[in-house]
Amino acid sequence: MRLHRLDITAFGPFGGTQKVDFDALSAAGLFLLHGPTGAGKTSVLDAVCYALYGAVPGARQSGQGLTLRSDHAAPGTRTEIRLELTVAGRRLEITRQPPWERPKKRGSGTTTDKAQTWLREYDSAARTWKDLSRSHQEIGEEITQLLGMSREQFCQVVLLPQGDFARFLRADAEARGKLLGRLFDTHRFADAEKRLAERRRTTEAEVRDGDAALLADAHRMQQAAGDPVPLPDLAPGDPGLADAVLSWAAVARSTARERLAIAQCARTAAESARAAAERALSDVRERARLQRRFAEARERAALLEQRADAHREARQRMERGRKAEAVAPALDLRDSAEAEHRRAADAEARARARLPQTDADAGAAGLAAAARRATEELGGLESARRAERRLGEIAAERTEMDRQERADEEALQDAEGWLAEWEQTRADLQERIDSAQEAATRAEQLAVQREPARNRLRAARERDRLAQDTEAAQARALDSRESALAAHEHWLDLKEQRLKGIAAELAAGLLDGEPCAVCGATDHPAPARKVAGHVDREAEERALAAYRQAEEQHAEDERRLAAAREALAAATAEAGDTPIGELAAQADELERLYSAARAGASQLHPAQEELRRAEQERERRSAARQEAALRVAARISRRDALERERTVLVEELGRARGDAVSVAARAAELERRAALLTEAADAARAAEDCAQRLKEADARLADAAFRAGFDTPQAAAAALLDDTAHRELQRRLDAWQQEEAAVRAMLAEPDTAAAAQQPPADLAGVEQAAEAAARRLQAAVSVQDEAARRCAELDRLSARATASVRRLAPLRDEYDRVARLASLAAGTSAENERRMRLESYVLAARLEQVAAAATVRLQRMSSGRYTLVHSDDRSGRGRSGLGLHVVDAWTGRERDTATLSGGETFFASLALALGLADVVTDEAGGVRLDTLFIDEGFGSLDDQTLDEVLDVLDSLRERDRSVGIVSHVADLRRRVHAQLEVVKGRTGSVVRQRGVG
Q1: 142 in the same domain as 42
Q2: Is the pLDDT of residue 926 over 50?
Q3: pTM for the structure as a whole
Q4: Beta partners for 97?
Q5: Can you tell me the distance from the alpha carbon of 367 to that of 370, in angstroms, rounded to the nearest whole number?
């Protein structure tokens, strides 16, 4: 991977657009990135990381999103990072824009634009850039796949953080393991450990569950067997559990089968005894039944003898009833004729009672003739009915005309009254319209004055707030100025004290036989000693850093004070010196007047609509008045015509109705008389016919009774039986005959007669003996069923236990294998001598590779003195595998890395970082890293060690590799010619490239 160009816009401390030409810087192989504290050196590296991965390094991830934007950027400038690089033989350009909160194009306030990302590739054949993707996810996956490294690996390998590796060099095994685990992605080995442990727990649980199920089956077999053999004391997990359970089950099954054979023999004997008792009981029951049957027959014969007289009377009654049945049709005919004659006579009497006295004594012919005369007179009244209906219609029409006349009079009065007030109504409505139009004009004028008043009020409020902010900013600027002066004086005091004691610092580096850096002498008889309160370089540098920080804070406070004063001046220019209360009162008064004018103007449209409706109402009422006058004239003519027609009809009706009050009454009277006469004539004829039929029925009845053998018809009627009496009498006769035949048959049976000659049967004793035999058989059957059930249950449970044992055998083998592997991977097995976990073992192998790669550069940096070695020894009670020691060639001893001095720690950690970068690169698939960055730490090296370190870094340029050093050490500016300087200022930082073509 080689970086070519980086464009930074509105990012971090850079307010504008800054361009970095890495091709020009990399031409020298080694270049320096320097600048004062807080200028933005690290922000350049953050921009590279953000362009590649869309996020800054882990320690600075709080700067994500909108907070990545520079505070110095103009409101209309969007934050953007563009990086051009070559990776895996492809030249790519990545552009990223984080989310941006920008001012709205219309109106006030802000809006947030989403993040944007572009990926382009240079086509060397066409010499043009072509777009690849605009998707965040696709671009992230593409870059990660090409680099072969995650963001953490990239930040650890390409942006070498020396502080992290110094801590790594002195850290314990656990801290080293965390870093190496992130870089080499050994979590899969930890996952393998977890999966083995989970598999061991799973198989162990399955084995225990199987043992528990097997032991539960054994307890069920013990319950089924009824404790013939005691169950051994066993528990899940016992080695001999399966064999013990199967052996005990075999003994229990054998005992249960013996019990079953005994129960079967007992049941056979009980069944024989029960059969003999049942046969004896059956014989006794049959004899007792025959004896009871003979006694019952004798009792029924005695009862028949007692009812013999009643049976003879019933037979005679049945004979007379059969003779009377021949007379029954004549009796029915005579009863029917008599009933019909009574009904006809009653109807005739009722009809004659409703007739007038003059017609009541007439015969049937005279009544019919009178009815015909009444019907003829009724037909002559039809014309009178039509005249009467017409008179009713005339009366209804005159009533309706009276009602319409009253309604028209009321409508005329209402229209006259409304039209009389029309002029005043129109004047009032026109006045309302004029007032609403004046209010609308006034509202337009006030609307123009409202907005300037509101703007002045807002500006006045902003003016007062900015005045308070300006006072607070001025106070902060004074405080920071005093703090900066105090820090400056403190730094000068420490610097002066250090200069006074500089001889002691120089003396600390003197060695016997080596020349003094000041005088060149090789003898040092009286080197200077440090006194109490000696100020060293680190104390001076801390004071200088505090002074610079205080100065930067003071500059920032001055910038904020100037900005606050500018804003205050702008607000004062717009609002003037008028107090807020007065401006608010003016604005409120304008608002009140504007609201009142708007309220008055809102009445314009309703008033216009009301005037329009009033004019429509005037036209409607004028038309209604004319129509009412026309209707009055038409009614006068119609009323005269109706009066003439009514006079003619009244004369006609007087002649037609006679003495009746109306034609309808006369017609009803004639209709009723004709109906009564017709009904009376019909009833008289029907009564005469019924009387003749009654005489004929009496003659037929007397003849039929004489032929049937009865003296009179009344005697035949008395002997006649109805259906119910006939059925009851026949049933009694049939029952007597059946009972007599049954008794005669029972007494003639030979078995019944023979049983009557024997002694009475003892049924109770025989039944008790049979019940006792049945109980003994039931008990034997229950014992046999229980024994059979126990045998079947034992067989079933034994088969299930045998299957469980067979199923558990391979599971036990699997558990043994998994448990051995899990213990070995977790480092708890006795076979794992060094107690190393699987992940620690892999990390130890990686650390050994890192130590070997770092030693190559460390020996050169330390002039062959130091070598890094990996150690598998355990540290304390922890596990082994991640130890790191340094071998001092001068003493030949191996010692802990924490014993190295500050400078030694730096170049040792630098060598470790470079070695780790090489190993991680190989692990990632051999991606070539042509551009590296090394962070701070060079200030702790002396001149000779610094030269050796730079020689090692310069050797990294082999095969066209470039290295960037991030440092503010002044001596490096003389040694490294190609430089990228970051200069900070009040309006943001800028970058400058020096020493490049």
Answers
A1: yes
A2: no
A3: 0.40
A4: 116
A5: 5
